[in-house]
Amino acid sequence: MNRYLAFFVLMLLVAPLMAGQARSGYAYLTPEARELQDDDFGNPGLASVDEGQALFYQPGANGKPCAACHGDQGEKLDPERIARYPVYSERLRKPITLREKIRQCRSDKQGGPALDYASPDAVALESFVRRLALGVPVAVDVSGPMAAHYAAGKQLFHTRWGQVDIACHQCHDYHAGKHFRGQILTQGQTNGMPVYRLATGEIAGTHERISQCLTSLRAEPFAIGSPEYIDFEVYMNARGNGLKIETPAIRY
Amino acid sequence: MKRFSIHFGLVLILVAGRAVAGDKPPEPAYFSWQVKDFAIDRPLGGRVGVAERGMAVASDGHRGNCLACHLLPISRDEVFGDLGPPLAGIASRQSVGAIRLHVVDQSYFNPETVMPGFYRRPEKLHRVAKAYRGRPFLSAQQIEDVVAWLATLK
After folding, report:
1. Most CB within 10 Å of its CB: which of A62, A192, A208, B96?
2. Mean pLDDT over residues B112-140, rounded?
3. Which tens digits make up the pLDDT trace of A78-107?
4. Cα-based distances in Å from A179 to A148, A251, B69
């Protein structure tokens, strides 16, 4: 009995260490890259935020711009709530990502035209809206009906993909901080999304970035906005709960 | 005489066959292999490795790309990695058969390994992109070339 108790206490102590602590990709950046990210004028990812802001003032089919309902600077949107996405929709019975919520507003509150999930406009609007929550800790609630999506996303993150046959967690959980192909591996967190990639000079949201890793594993990517990527996003955002939002982060 | 002509004909067919296919017959997509005592002792598909070619495969980003994760005793270290141990001196630590198994399928040694299985059975792979379907990461010849090169790292 005592032995079991001792084992139990030991496991309680060790479990948090084994689970590992969430670290932002920022922690692995060079000082120059950090400086670039922190520069309110020089950060090249801000171009996407500016584009999003311009779209925020553009009227929809019913003549209303986003700003008409959410404030000139989006100040009527609650940053704490932005940090909770994806959230569960009881009506649609599925998790809704931040980009999906914006698409809904375009269709339901502006009368269209529909916003393609993979379009640069959708990425830009997401950048603008998520930038409003800069510095707010990610806080995804994965209780209730979200638990199944969290579990599905975790399963996907632990699946070996493609001809290269490696799972996401094998690089991003086991080897963060080490060098892969001359780059420093990070935990593959999403708190900086959409991010500006130094390697490509392009902005990428969570789904685009997963596609890029799947492609490098010689696997067939899923469609941007697909149920698989939404489950990935539920798991990956929740995995980074507590990390501060850095949109638009600078990454490799 | 009759006997001679049959033989002669056979030789002709063989020679013609070789001429058409070239010196190296085309490689099948996959040869099966067997593990004994954590080693694969027989070269894949009976291929004979060439160390020089193996060095090229090991440092090529689109083929072996061992360099992405290992320090190698060659001068191209701008894209190196340290997920795995340096491979200098590997042949003084391990048998050729064990080295072959490391390259073919490292998960025999460590089921949770991050090292790609360079010659796993293609049907075991998951959601492979169209361009790469039906074959492992490296060909049997490339595996043997890499193994031949590693065998020189004493």
Report:
1. A192
2. 94
3. 999 999 999 999 999 999 999 999 999 999
4. 34, 15, 7
**Per-residue model confidence (pLDDT) at position A10:** 41
Is residue A136 within 8 Å of residue A80, measured between CB atoms? yes
Residue B2 included in any domain: no
- The confidence score (pLDDT) of residue B24 equals 58
- Chain B, 32-91: which have a CB under 8 Å from a chain A CB? 61, 65, 67-69, 78-83
> Domain residues of chain A, as ranges?
21-251
> Which of B62, B103, B114 is the best residue to mutate to test the A interface, defined by the most A CB atoms within 10 Å of its own CB?
B114
This prediction's pTM: 0.91
CA distances from A184 to A139, A178, A193, B61, B86 (A): 26, 6, 18, 17, 17
Give me the domain span that covers residue B30. Answer: 25-150
Crossing angle (nearest 10°) for helices B140-150 and B51-59: 100
The whole-number pLDDT of residue B23 equals: 55
Question: Quick one: pLDDT at residue A163?
Answer: 95
Domain contains B69: yes
Residue B1 within a domain: no
> B4-40, pLDDT tens digit by residue?
443 433 333 333 334 344 455 566 789 999 999 999 9
For residues B41-72, one letter each, b for 16 or more C-beta atoms within 10 angstroms of the residue's C-beta and e for the rest, the string is eebbbebebeeebbbbbbbeeebbbbbbbbbb
Task: Give the integer Cα–Cα distance in Å for A69 and B95.
Answer: 71
CATH superfamily of A21-251: Cytochrome c-like domain (1.10.760.10)
